[in-house]
Design brief:
Mean pLDDT: 96
Low-confidence stretches: none
Order of helices and strands: HEEHHEHEEEEHEHEE
Strand content: 25-35%
Number of strands: 10
Number of helices: 6
Number of domains: 1
Bound molecules: guanosine-5',3'-tetraphosphate
CATH architecture: 3-Layer(aba) Sandwich
Largest sheet: 8 strands, mixed
Radius of gyration: 16 Å
């Protein structure tokens, strides 16, 4: 998505060689009309995939998933995140999965109430960043626990120098990223064509 790449170049701040801060339109302040365009871009990519629900993870996935859901005309559900990685085995009304964050070097637990993903649903997973793919894989795990199907994975910014794509493709999912950053540093931000 050309406008996204231009926006990353204009407003993105590179921290070291691995972290891209895009707080002024995506991760802290939200540029609503621009995120709406991002939602539309996901709709164009996945409109023939039979999507019945969109699933994301709090916090920064929410605006993007919300925007996409408006174009699909389907509900948006967000997984809630809990710092205690251990599953609550007594919570029978929840689907849960454990996610390890390489960025934060810690595991956390994600949860979705069972009534919000149904067997037979075709779920589009959406997230703001793809780094190592663990959050996307955890969301896909929840979709499978529910007897639903992953229609695809839509990512706003993929860090192509980390192994998230490999992780989710190995699991057999279609993944579409609106911008793929191949490297960051002294030569600026290099996007995959
Ligand atoms: P993974 O799911 O792909 O394996 O990624 P990882 O755990 O390593 O990432 C942890 C958090 O850091 C995620 O957000 C992810 O979106 C974010 N993240 C990873 N790399 C970058 C980056 O280069 N720039 C920015 N801005 N974020 C990055 P989170 O902690 O769940 O945060 P939030 O959604 O609650 O804001």
């Amino acid at each position: 998505m050309k406008r996204l790449k231009e926006r990353i170049v204009k407003d993105g701040k590179v921290i070291g060689t691995e972290i891209l801060k895009v707080d002024n339109f995506l991760n802290h302040q939200v540029d609503v009309p621009f995120i709406d365009e991002i939602g539309k871009a996901f709709y164009e990519l996945f409109k023939d995939a039979g999507v019945t629900r969109i699933l994301t993870i709090e916090a920064s996935g929410i605006p993007v998933a919300f925007a996409a859901a408006r174009f699909f005309g389907v509900p948006m559900v967000y997984a809630k995140k809990f710092p205690n990685a251990v599953k609550d085995e007594s919570a029978e009304h929840l689907y849960q999965s454990e996610v390890y964050s390489f960025t934060k070097q810690a595991s956390y637990n994600i949860r979705v109430t069972k009534e919000y993903i149904r067997p037979g649903d075709k779920i589009l997973i959406i997230d703001d960043f793809l780094a190592n793919g663990k959050a996307a894989a955890g969301l896909a795990d929840i979709v499978h626990q529910a007897g639903a199907e992953v229609a695809g994975i839509g990512i706003v910014i993929e860090k192509g120098f980390q192994n998230g794509r490999q992780t989710v493709e190995t699991l057999g999912y279609r993944i579409e990223s609106l911008a793929i950053v191949d490297s960051m540093g002294e030569n600026g931000i290099v996007f995959r064509e």
